[in-house]
Amino acid sequence: MSFTGLTTHEEQRMLREIGVGAFDELLDAIPERVVLHQPLPIPGPLSEIEIRRTLGEWSRTNAADRAVSFLGAGAYDHWIPSAVNAVAMRSEFATAYTPYQPEVAQGSLTAIFQFQSMIAELTGCDVANASLYDGSTATVEAALLARGQTGRKRVVVAGALHPNYLGVLRTYLDGRDLTILENRGGSCAALDLRAGLGPDVACVIYQHPNFFGLLENPRGIHAMAHEVGALVIAVCDPVALSLIEPPGKAGADMVVGEAQPLGNPPSFGGPMLGYFACKQSLVRRMPGRIAAETNDRDGRRGFVLTLQTREQHIRREKATSNICTNQGLMALRATIHMGLLGRQGMRDVAELCVQKSHHAAQLATAVPGYRRAHDGAFFREFALECPLDASAIVARGMTAGILPGVDLGQFRPEWKRWLLVAVTEQRSAQEIERWVQVLADAGRTS
Amino acid sequence: MSYPDDVRYTAEHEWARLAHGIVTVGITGYATEQLGDVVFVELPPIGKQIEASKTFGVVEAVKTVSDLYAPVTGVVVEVNTALTDNPAAVNVEPYGAGWMIRIKPANPADVDQLMNSAAYSRLIEEQHA
Amino acid sequence: MTTRSLENLTFPRRLLIEQGGPGHRGPELPRCDVPAVPIAELLAGITLRETLAFPEVSEPEVVRHFIELSTLNHHIDRGFYPLGSCTMKYNPKINDEIAALPGFALAHPLGPDSANQGALRVIFELQRLLAAITGFAAVTTQPSAGAQGEMTGLMLIRAYHRSRGEGETRVKVLVPDSAHGTNPASVNLLGWETVTIPSDERAGVDLHALSRALDSTTAAVMLTVPNTIGQFERNILEVTQRAHAVGAQVYMDGANLNALVGLVRPADLGFDVMHINVHKTFSTPHGGGGPGAGPVAVARHLEPFLPVPVVVERDGQYTLVHDRPQSIGRVHAFHGNFGILTRALTYILTLGPEGLRRVSRTAILNANWLMRRLAKTYELPHAEHCMHEFVLSGKRLRKHGVKTLDVAKRLLDFGIHAPTVYFPLIIEEALMIEPTETETLDRLEHFALAMERIAREATDHPDLLLNAPHDTPVSRLDEGRAARELILKWRAPLGPEPASTPETVGRR
Prior knowledge:
The structure holds 3 protein chains of 3 kinds. Chain A is an alpha/beta fold. Chain A has 14 helices and 15 strands. Chain A has 2 domains: about 65-80 and about 345-445, Alpha-Beta Complex (Aspartate Aminotransferase, domain 1), CATH 3.90.1150.10; about 80-335, Aspartate Aminotransferase, domain 2 (3-Layer(aba) Sandwich), CATH 3.40.640. Chain A has a 7-stranded mixed β-sheet, sandwiched between helices. In chain A, helix 3 (about 80-90) runs antiparallel to helix 12 (about 330-365). Chain A starts with 7 loop residues before the first helix and ends with a helix. The model of chain A has no long low-confidence stretch (mean pLDDT about 95). Chain B is of the alpha+beta class. Chain B is about 20% helix and about 35% strand. Chain C has helices spanning about 5, 40, 60-70, 95-100, 100-105, 115-135, 145-165, 180-190, 205-215, 235-245, 340-375, 405-415, 440-460, 460-465, 480-485, and strands at about 140, 170-175, 195, 220-225, 250-255, 275, 295-300, 310-315, 315-320, 390-395, 420, 430-435. In chain C, strand 8 (about 310-315) and strand 9 (about 315-320) form a beta hairpin. The longest helix of chain C is centred in the C-terminal third of the chain and has 37 residues, at about 340-375. Residues about 1-5 and about 495-508 of chain C have low confidence and may be disordered. Chains in contact: A-B, A-C, B-C. The interface of B and C includes residues 40, 62, 63 and 88 of B.
């Protein structure tokens, strides 16, 4: 089953019209000894019935099929309105190519333009691009831009940046150019930051809310960074930005992050949706695709990809990055999502996250042996210090149909008693009670 | 297409005009025709030292981008800031309002070493052959 | 928004911010079922937003908005997309269905391995199958796209050279002049230098030039096979051998793998590493520009350097292993584009070995038939048999003042997406055409007829071409204006506006 549509008769006719006697004559450029004469040692073909059965079984061995999730740490279980799926799954969007011929791609381009508009508004920045692979590579791209712009090399990471984002940064940047500041108390301490800065610093990166869900002090960080001529890169969750002052309004040079929470399921961590927004002065260095408004020959408004000369396919070795794809379909889903929720809905989601996560934290800290790992205001997520290993709590939770949080021991051994708990608008009061029960039961066994 | 006699030319399609000890530089009508509509020009800061045959900036059109090569060695003393708001001037008046930078040359006689308009015309013909 | 639409009394096409108004709401959230505390108290000391200038539109109107936008797109399920090197084949719907199963869609990457066995199994199996298809020893599915796969592949090569004490000396990559722009861009990102190797008169790598350029400073040679002209690199075994002889590694850009599946294994050609574009060869949807995925397959000697974490299987149990001392590190925050990988796996299982073989055979047959047919009307710079794609030159039409761009735009009027144009750079007025295996002879013939008609129009009615397209939702767009004015976001209306009344419909 290969989805082809040629009869044997047609094939023979085609070979005749090409002017060869047999198909193999078309392969004369290939050295004979590398041509495969045996079928590949792989399974299949499977019919749809068998695919549904086999892969269906595999999917049902995933706890996510049934369990209630309190997992976050960069991928969240937010409500996705039914209309998002219904619209985004349409062939017209899903099977369209990159809009290089804008006259037949106004659907994709208009959606991209609106995505850019809403991301710019959420982040408080002048401009935004059509998206990047994910939050981690968006952070890398921002750091590379800062270096190109300032001519400086050092990248300072302040406060609690997602350890996996840090991992990706480390892969892309030379370790000598990366300064990771300690975070006492879970967030960025002003003293640490001041000590870590200097005239060789291209940018300061901080996450807000940070990896532990704690809210930082953007204005303070911005002031210190700008004082030494470094650019500021704020890595922000878009749901939080519906409620808190966006760093773009407080002078951040770039605001980037992970927009999966907007209309996209966690999907085992991918595909994700990186976003990138920045000040007008940096627009020509912005990586990725960008849609711009224009008009056609009849005066109708339309949209096209622009500043493509910066993209790799034209500037080749001078390209500012090597991004080819944006995350078209994910960005479309986010755009539909933001359009459906609108001004009030976006705020409602954020407020519910705050209410429910604080309620959960309060209940949990009332259970003997449990306390918050950090002090300070938090959004949607908090780290709980537990009387036993977080992994044991997770295991117990699974028997009760709950994924109670992310075991932070997988990142650092000294965090093995910490559980990172995310409570979105989807979690009911009853689910939260069941979750507290898991903590209580686990606590009793320790 | 004809190429003005009052300037000299480089093989990378820049022109240079020496007047009162200062060299004005831009790109030729052939270059603008190849590029299409210019949308942005990236120019060096005043005071920058530039070297003959090395790049001093970038010219961006809708679908292409091209480096700009200095015709002579010297220091940048002026840049055409009008191009920020009106990059189209490069297409409309490549030898006039579309000028890009002015250089104080290390050696003014260097300009005479560049091609005259007849030699440049021949170069274009050869490239098209 | 123009008076044109009012004249026709069609509902005006607006952006979301231009519709609805205060009081218009989409689907609502449930009431808060936990005791509510004032936000300002819960977030003491935090500066909150003052406003969020977002649209306020009802759900039916949001849906209509996007459905209308969808009608403006060409897409594979509608018609032909002969884009060279993009492999616009049919996107099987079973793939999407499997990826959307709740157990997969809701799986969380940081849950315990015991909670994610199904997901880990998908990744492990896909890696195993891709290794078998390409002939390599190991595969990572972390990279998010082909370009990131390239970067990853080059990093693996760098790690390899470093492990042998040659990290500082091997800093050059040889790339043919026919290569896609991501190749030198990826090289640049590593801080390495690109050395461009000219093509010979058969559009293959010039062996003499290659040999002259190969030395102890060469980190790698990057090749696309078949190349961007659609030709199999005749001297490939010689090329890889010479590269290895100077201690360099050979990287294959897998963009054109559709020509080789089931027919040739890239590892057998002497490559050390390659990336795979699953959104090309393995049918995952293009989504209007992503997401894709760019798995990287490597020979045994590069396996220790693969990104972490790695999926390991033992006794039917799958685990994520992070402790790999020689790994280049992470290239993805989690485990790659899982939703896309699931689709690719479904596709490979659907096809099986016979299906994959049929893919490359049919792709090659379709391309050769189309090439011979169009060579009667257009200039064919390289007349040997092609593989899955071929390149024509539009330069014969220049004497009528018609460029390849105009051919591309006129095709849109016939319901056919333009082929890739102006690439590769080594062919003038290039038209790169890849029909793929899922097109029928009817479709190929329709395309040929359209191209033949356009060639006639170039002689008889050139302005039909110069002003094309005529039959699309918008006519040719002013890209110069877009690049000069850089209007990259909407203008939010000033202040609250009353909801639209019949009198105000159509007025911005």
